[in-house]
Amino acid sequence: MVCQEEILIEKVCDLYEQISSLETLKPCKNVDMLFTELVLTCMPPSPIDVTKLPKTIQEKRSHLIRLCGEAEGYLESHYSAILGSYQNPLHHLHIFPYYSNYIKLGHLEFSILSQHCSHVPSKIAFIGSGPLPLTSIVLASNHLPSTIFHNYDIDPLANSSAEHLVSSDPDLSNRMIFHTNDILDVSDDLKEFEIVYLAALVGMNKEEKNRIIDHLEKHMAPGALLMLRSAHGARAFLYPVVESSDLRGFEILSIFHPMDEVINSVVISRLYLPQLRCQ
């Protein structure tokens, strides 16, 4: 009898072959259909541990995550351009197909944040904000109405698109600042933030992700919070996994694995104070 894990892997590998043979990953009927099927395949709770899969499957998973990241970038750019054509882009965010997921994820992350932060943060850094910075927009609009958000992205076009989206809103245009930087080139400025968010697709594999986490550990303010997105079970075919052992120098405060259509797991950690690092 074929086990559920084998059926899952076979289905994901079949979709991987179809996706990797596409001529483009830009939004269109075929691309949308394949990625929707992939997400629905990986969404149900699964005990699978992707780190224990054979090397050939691991390699396909790594490539699939990059393909997902590329497709997600195209999708966000596509909808950012559509939204940017409206006089008030923020009034039309619901047209983005995953907007409701961001509303749920924002509420979840704010709830977790509130358990570990006793006051309203004055400044938050979001690393990897992209052309459609929905996390920052949702948190700034719904949960943190006085906080200033510093959004970092390596792509100047993404920042230009994002800045255009909030430019017509008198409140958010004052509280959303966009920086075009590779985060590995940002050092002293990171000490200004009480909370740093790291987007799921900043650092596509373990080596890249750990290099960024190590950089944040060196330059964030002691006691500051680091909020990361990870993945669990079959959802790890879509996004990189951040494990507790990757967060050297940080105290893990909470790990939450959603069971609904919110795909990303949420990890919140605190940078150890200097005196605690030596113990």
Automatic annotation (TrEMBL):
Tell me one GO biological process term. Answer: nicotianamine biosynthetic process
Task: Give the record's keywords alphabetically.
Answer: S-adenosyl-L-methionine, Transferase
Documented EC number(s): 2.5.1.43
The reaction(s) catalysed by this protein are:
3 S-adenosyl-L-methionine = nicotianamine + 3 S-methyl-5'-thioadenosine + 3 H(+)
* Keyword Secreted carried by entry: no
Q: Name one GO molecular function term.
A: nicotianamine synthase activity
Is Transferase there in the keyword field?
yes
- Superkingdom of the organism of origin: Eukaryota
Give the protein's biological function. Answer: Synthesizes nicotianamine, a polyamine which serves as a sensor for the physiological iron status within the plant, and/or might be involved in the transport of iron.
- What family, per the record? Belongs to the nicotianamine synthase (NAS)-like family.
The record, for PANTHER family, names: NICOTIANAMINE SYNTHASE 3 (PTHR32266:SF12)
Name assigned to this protein: Nicotianamine synthase
Q: In which organism is this protein found?
A: Pisum sativum (Garden pea)
